[in-house]
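> forwarded from #structure-qc
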């Protein structure tokens, strides 16, 4: 158990706020829900939770200290994550940029489009700039959760694992609601472009903030 309830309450608040605010994971789940529906997006969510919690444990057990000694590593991860997000933005924009004759069915994703698998979502966490910022910052700021690294890693991991699904759910439901709105070709084009722009801006601001 954490050494002080006040420290844990502060960490719980941090975990909730950082997990529910916009970021690459939530935006990608929103986009996947809009493109493929909530059922086909579930493996994406499972992979996100799995990859993120493994990162929390790894950083808390020592990887965070190693990265702190090699700041260039975080820069590489930030740029890699931004590149991935820009690719996602392009994929979201493609149907809306097609000719009007073809875009009438823009509510359907391209024929070769597939929702992200659990493994792909888990691996994405390692180049997700927001995930690294959250975890490294939390590991340093909430070291008072426990003097034992293993116990601290367990507390942080289980807390994020409990909080994250609650925070992800609204984004998934919003994406599924958007999918229902995309029955009209004109609306679908605008929504696809809007989501692509949001993801692209997230990528750009991630790099600029560094």
């Amino acid at each position: 158990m954490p050494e002080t309830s006040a420290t844990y309450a502060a960490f719980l608040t941090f975990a909730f706020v950082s997990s529910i605010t916009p970021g690459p994971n939530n935006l990608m789940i929103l986009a996947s829900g809009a493109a493929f529906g909530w059922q086909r997006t579930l493996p994406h969510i499972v992979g996100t939770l799995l990859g993120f919690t493994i990162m929390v444990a790894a950083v808390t057990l020592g990887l965070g200290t190693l990265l702190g000694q090699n700041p260039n590593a975080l820069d590489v991860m930030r740029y890699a994550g931004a590149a991935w997000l820009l690719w996602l933005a392009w994929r979201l924009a493609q149907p809306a940029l097609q000719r009007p004759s073809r875009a009438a069915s823009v509510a359907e994703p391209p024929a070769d489009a597939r929702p992200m698998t659990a493994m792909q979502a888990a691996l994405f966490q390692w180049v997700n700039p927001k995930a690294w910022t959250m975890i490294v910052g939390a590991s340093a700021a909430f070291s008072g959760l426990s003097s034992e690294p293993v116990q601290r890693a367990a507390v942080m991991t289980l807390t994020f694992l409990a909080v994250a699904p609650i925070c992800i759910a609204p984004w998934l439901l919003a994406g599924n609601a958007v999918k229902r709105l995309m029955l009209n070709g004109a609306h679908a084009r605008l929504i696809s472009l809007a989501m692509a722009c949001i993801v692209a801006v997230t990528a750009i601001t991630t790099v600029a903030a560094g």
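QC bot note: The chain has one domain: 5-209. Confidence is low (pLDDT under 50) at residues 102-106.
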